[in-house]
Amino acid sequence: MRTETDSVSATVTVLKHQLNVDSFVREPAKLLQMNEVGVCNIMTQRPIVFDAYKENRSTGNFIIVDRVSSATVGAGMIDFPLRRADNVHWQALDVDKAARSALKNQKPAVLWLTGLSGSGKSTIANALEALLHTCGKHTYLLDGDNVRHGLNRDLGFTAVDRVENIRRVAEVAKLMADAGLIVICSFISPFRDERRMARELMGEGEFIEIFVDTPLDECARRDPKGLYKKAFAGNIANFTGVSSPYEAPENPELHLKTMGQEPARLALQIEEFLRSRMEEK
């Protein structure tokens, strides 16, 4: 998000409604197409300086720029800050991340497994947590399907909902890392920008992106939940790899090619990578 005075990473968290430019009637909407206008909430990674557009057009306007292509994808006017920006303050805590980590005798980390549905992420993540547990490590596994039964049960699978799904999970992972845990996240997380957002939330060196690389044909052959069969038949909309894109990591910390590899061996490879990384610091 770029304004007259700032440039900051930002996420559109809620699209409240679309505005019909002919009648000015408010209409429900999940997304905005080219040249459409809507009212939304935007969360910035840090506070910015601005005025309401009605008071100052120069400091009250903004544009949204794609971080990968640098293309301008939207423009808008700032109406008002959310009330919580003024009423919520950071509470100082006596016990910090370093103290919690020292008590557990480990360094916190967020191991983020990304890949297509059926690539083996959950199986590898489960084997990895079992392995770390036997090594005496304090862990927690956040699985894509499991969080949709609770925390994210209100979200669907549109591009907007997928972004919000990852935003929430990243915030939870950040809290768990702050507790000194090794957090294993197993999510398709198809968009590079959202994985980048998750990385930026974490401390220096804490985020470890792991690309579970399985060809689409193999994922479809496995089809453990019968989802690809439904997607190819047109019965599931916005299915990653079929009717919705998957943006593969460009520079992951660890690239796992699963063909011909056992999940337990791949989990051991992650554990060895994590151990060597922790020993370096």
TrEMBL record:
Keyword GTP-binding: yes
Record-listed ATP binding positions: 115-122
Active site: 189
Domain APS kinase as annotated: residue spans: 108-257
Pathways involved: Sulfur metabolism; hydrogen sulfide biosynthesis; sulfite from sulfate: step 2/3
Gene3D superfamilies for the chain: P-loop containing nucleotide triphosphate hydrolases (3.40.50.300), Translation factors (2.40.30.10)
Pfam family of the protein (one): APS_kinase
All residue ranges annotated as the GTP-eEF1A C-terminal domain in the record: 2-78
Known catalytic reactions: adenosine 5'-phosphosulfate + ATP = 3'-phosphoadenylyl sulfate + ADP + H(+)
HAMAP family: Adenylyl_sulf_kinase
UniProt similarity note: Belongs to the APS kinase family.
Function according to Swiss-Prot or TrEMBL: Catalyzes the synthesis of activated sulfate.
Protein name: Adenylyl-sulfate kinase
Organism whose genome encodes this protein: Rhizobium tropici
Source taxonomy: Bacteria, Pseudomonadati, Pseudomonadota, Alphaproteobacteria, Hyphomicrobiales
Gene name as annotated: cysC
